[in-house]
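Can't paste images in this forum, so I'm doing it all in text. The chain is below; anyone willing to post the predicted structure tokens underneath?
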Amino acid sequence: FIGIKATSWDSAKAGLVLSSGTYELTVSATTASGISKASTVTDKSKFTVTIPAWRGSLTAPVINIAQSEYDYNSNVTITWEPSQYKSIDGNTGEIKYTVYADLAKQPETVIAAYISETQCVLANAKAGTYLVKVVATANGLTATSETVSFNVKQPVVGKPVITTPQYVLLNSDIDILWEAADNAISYNIYIYTGNVLPDLPSASNITSTSYKAKGIIADAGVYNVVVEAVNGDVKTLSDPKEMIVTIPPVEPTNITATNVYAGNKATVTWTAGNEALDVKYYVNILQSNNVITSYRTTLCEWSSEQYLEAGSYKVEISAKNPLGQSASATANL
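Text version of the structure:
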């Protein structure tokens, strides 16, 4: 460049576009009479030109979602058309992708980071609307796709099946048991008497398939149990299961016999030892310690079906609950 009268020079203003590389700069000073003197090439007159990454170009990836709606808990494959990178200095550079996805808000959660592939999988998608974006990077450049969305259906929550035994013992570890329901995240338990489901559960947010109800049930009686499977706003109730909470029976008292005469049919009555539920009474009539007749009843009364002969008799009455616990008493007729 000739005829510069200043002591500085701007290559861009001069229309010179430099490629990357190392350059040497020489400056010659010339007088009006034509006498010239060149500068000495030193380290200070050498400079290097580096083409920064932003001088290249990177296109944004284009996301392809196969369908607009998916089933709950499905695996959603997210694919995209690859970005294209071009650099002024001829470098190609490797393109990496980071994928972001979130429910009902701008995507911030990374589901795949710095991958070379042009697809990834969002596993076990939950209900709601997902927003997704893909960010490409190459040689310091970034390019972001447009944000796309897809919907995941509400789950179909299965019905729990209660497996708790019908009879349980008061003051024991009363375990409410049930089979896991499809797509359930947690469970609520209702334990109540009567036929009306309470507004509020007895226990909630249970993540296993069992619950110890000892602290809820204070008295023996007949209870209904319902298990509710929960996944967000979707809930499914089990069928009610009757649960009878009982206590160990106590031996019968006040055993009384009437019509105990030869040729008569005797009648025996007694008083229940306690209020154990669903107790059955096993009545044995013995003569010389041999059982001559047996009878089972839920009442506190027994009448002989045959005429008694003269002799000594003994009656043995056993109270037994459905759990196999029993208590007995005997009396002479």
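The chain is about 0% helix and 45% strand. The mean pLDDT is 85.
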